[in-house]
Amino acid sequence: MCGIVGYTGAAPAIPILLDGLERLEYRGYDSAGVAVVDPRTGLQIEKCKGRLQFLRDRLEALPPLEGTVGLGHTRWATHGEPNDVNSHPHVSQNGRVAIVHNGIIENYAEIKDFLLQQGVRFRSDTDSEVVAQLLEYYFNDCSDVMDAVYAVLARLEGAYALGILCADMPDRLIAARKDAPLLLGYGEGENFIASDATAIISHTRQVAYMEDGEVAVLTRDGIQVFDEYRRPIEKQLHHIEWDVSAAEKGGYAHFMFKEIMEQPEALRQTISPRLRDGQVVFDELRLDDGFLRRMKRIYLVACGSSYHVGMLGKYNLERFLRLPVEVCLASEFRYSDPLVDEDTLVIVISQSGETLDTMAALREARSRGGYILSIVNVVGSSIARESDDVLYTWAGPEIAVATTKAYSTQLALLTMLGLYMGQRLGRTSPEEYAAITAELALLPEKMEQVIASTDVYQYLASLYFNRECVFFIGRNLDYALGLEGSLKLKEISYIHSESYAAGELKHGTISLIEDGTLVVSLATYGPLLDKAISNIVEVKARGAEVVALTTDSNRERLEKIATHILTVPDTHPVLQPNLGVVPLQLFAYYIALHRGCDIDKPKNLAKSVTVE
Ligand code: F6R
Fold it and tell me: How far apart are CA 400 and CA 398, in angstroms?
């Protein structure tokens, strides 16, 4: 979704803004723009539809835009088609203010009507332009820009992260936030705003996360922050631990491939500090035994791949806890009148910690008294901050839109959480607990074996890259795993694909199987191997070509019936999807590569989905 970067300092702003925007490209966008305040000529704006490179080319062809204070923006269109005019920054009618915005102004139509009646002329079809125009309207009436900013914010409904520049104040930058991510970066003689830390990490690691209702005024010498009542507040500073190289390709062709390869290390970082002497230890967790004992129900709430982690989590948590666990899509949960009360644990799963649907579901659950425990990758993100408890996946920054290492670490952490609760409640057998924790410790090493060679995936991709449709089938954990395999394939290669519970085939879907249909059969879940084999026989009898994924120890049995075979090392059945997902990621990756797709930035998708 939209990305914002802002700079105030002594250096020319444009190169810093363009570098920041490049690092935000992964969030997804369809146009880009920059604005600087030139002390002699006022606001200078350049913006255009398409890749950031088009903006760079345009800027290079023009006389340099001077200014040491500026804003940059990548837009992911919501209101108004992607074109030059609808791109941000938006400048007010008389050029006094320019703004960039991430989010949606829900009452923009009403504000626009009001301003049109006052004679204001609009240029774009966006909701965002009303902010620039309303700001100038109020600013014309008062001498204090902060009076104008607060007056505007009081009228806005919806979500916003805002960056504001004023022609009259060439030394400062104003920022405001409600329900959309924005952080402040504290440098030496320079300060920043950004949608996320990747944009500014090469300049500073000292950041503060803006809270809803806050307004910040940045100059090169410092940052002042005010609450919604305009009272000054002290922000807590956070040090970003990861290095800038973590957000760079480092010689790999794509971030997605790099992140697939980083999975063993990401798992190690996530698992090993929490596994001591065969025990799962969560030093950071506040969840107490009193709550655990009265807990009657668990909801797992998430979107997309994080929801697929929840699907797997349902099987495992019910197994460990013998409690009803429901897994819900966040966008459905919030409107479903969910059965959440003070005895309900709501586990919210989100890589970015900023997904609006997930955030809204969290708030819905909290308003009903649920205990919110989130599993999040981005430290200090909104979901992390609004939860009662947070477990961080230490996957490092994930840049490719299609998640890989965040998914793997979420899955491991959720399993560990299940084991932890199961043990505290005495509902997981000590033998099972010991067997799974022993295998958890070996998971990074076993995953290294999976990624050691990619030849087979490249070969299969060369055979199947031009298919129009692919089916994934599996039972139990393999069914939930198939959902993720199917999503990976469709989102980056644009091949239509569905995942079915294999036992359901005979209730309808099998009519779609014909000569040459490609079926990826997941047969890693040992307890149901015989059933998986029957399903392979069933689809083969109707002409399907079957790529079967199983474990090393079952290779021989599957080899006899599948067209092609993929294997992963054996581990405990509840952990098998952690290894099984990697071949599916690589299969999707190489197919997309063969098809010449933009793997890291698939069309229409955004990394952090901050609109409903
Ligand atoms: C798919 C993918 C998405 C996200 C979903 C939720 O590869 O990454 O489906 O899982 O948009 O995002 P988070 O986890 O950030 O809440």
Answer: 6
Q: Is residue 87 part of a domain?
A: yes
- Asked if the peptide bond before residue 39 counts as cis, ω within 30 degrees of 0, the response is no
**Which residue has a Cα nearest atom 16 of ligand 1?**
350
Exposure pattern of 210-222 as b/e (b: 16+ CB <10 Å)?
bbbebbbbbbbee
User: Cα–Cα distance between 380 and 211 in angstroms, integer?
Assistant: 10
Residue 202 to residues 96, 192, 198, Cα–Cα distance (Å): 31, 12, 8
Q: What is the pLDDT of residue 587?
A: 97
490 and 357 in a single domain? The answer is no
Domain with residue 373: its CATH number is 3.40.50.10490
Do 208 and 160 reside in the same domain of the chain?
A: yes
- Is residue 256 a contact partner of residue 600, using CB atoms and an 8 Å limit? yes
Q: What is the CATH number of the domain that holds 88?
A: 3.60.20.10
- Least Cα distance to 97 among 160, 68, 140, 65 occurs for 140
DSSP-derived secondary structure for 369-408: TPEEEEEESSTT-HHHHTSSEEEE-------SSS-SHHHH
Task: Say whether both 212 and 304 belong to one domain.
Answer: no
Residues 469 and 578 in one domain: yes
Q: How many CB atoms lie within 10 A of CB 501?
A: 18
Q: How far is the CA of 350 from the centre of ligand 1 (A)?
A: 7
Show the domain range for 571.
455-594
Catalytic sites, residue numbers: 2, 607
Roughly how many angstroms between the first and final C-alpha of the chain, as a whole number? Answer: 11
**Residues 32 and 75 sit within 8 Å (Cβ to Cβ):** yes
**Residues 21 and 62 grouped into a single domain:** yes
Helix (H) or strand (E) holding 314: helix 304-321
Ligand 1 atom with least separation from CA of 305: 10
Asked whether the beta carbons of 409 and 394 are under 8 A apart, the reply is yes
Does residue 610 lie within any of the structural domains?
A: no
Q: What are phi and psi of 211, to 5 degrees?
A: -100, 165
| 275 and 209 within one domain | no
Residue 450, classified by CB atoms within 10 Å of its CB into exposed (0-12), middle (13-18) or buried (19+), is: buried
* CB of residue 55 inside a 6 A radius of ligand 1: no
Neighbours of 437 (CB within 10 A): 21
Residue 357 sits in the same domain as residue 497:
no
Distant-in-sequence, close-in-space partners of 149: CB < 8 Å, separation ≥ 6? 135, 164, 174, 176, 215
DSSP labels, 217-233: EEETTEEEEE-TTS-EE
pLDDT for 14 equals 96
| Inter-residue contact 311 to 347 (CB < 8 Å) | no
113, 176: one domain = yes
Take atom 4 of ligand 1 and give the residue whose Cα is closest: 304
Q: Is the CB of 585 under 6 A from ligand 1?
A: no
pTM, 2 dp: 0.84
What is d(CA 365, CA 356) in angstroms, rounded to the nearest whole number?
14
Is any ligand 1 atom within 6 A of the Cβ of residue 303?
yes
| 358 Cβ below 6 A of ligand 1 | yes
The per-residue pLDDT for 162 is 97
| Closest CA relative to residue 562, chosen from 580, 586, 539, 582 | 539
Extract the residue ranges of the chain whose pLDDT is less than 50: none
